[in-house]
Structures are given as C-alpha cells and as structure tokens.
Amino acid sequence: MIVGAKEGEIIVKINAPPEDGKANKALIAFLAKFFGIAKSDIAIVKGETARRKRVVLPDSSEIKAKLNEILGGEGES
Prior knowledge:
Distance between the termini: 25 Å
Low-confidence stretches: none
Largest sheet: 2 strands, antiparallel
Mean pLDDT: 91
Strand order of the largest sheet: 1-2
Number of strands: 4
Structural class: alpha+beta
C-alpha cells in the first residue's frame, strides 16, 4: 500500500519478505494493479537488493495524473 510521499518519492509498504526476490515481485504486482498496467511494463532499474528502489513505468497521462495526485503536485513537469 502507498503510505505517503516525500521529496518526490512515493513510499510503498509491501508485506513480503526480502528474500529470493519476493518483495520485488510483490512491489511490481502492487504497482501493476494500482496503475492498471501489466507487470511486464514495470522495471526495477536501481536498488533491487535495497529497501529504496527506482522503478520505470510507462509514459502515460493516466499514470502521470495518479503520480501527481500522490505527490501533491510535486512531480509535475
């Protein structure tokens, strides 16, 4: 679940152990469901073994709108 946002980052809480990639898979599944996109459209590009991760999502107006809503306008460009 999304628990907040800080400094242009979204804070997501995942209830999966950080072993054998389970937490990463759970994060991707959550984001896919939240944004209504395929899991294959999401990539973790930094921090696969860290708590803090950078993910890449498709470039769409719907995703941008949801991100801006969560970030309170912080992420607008």
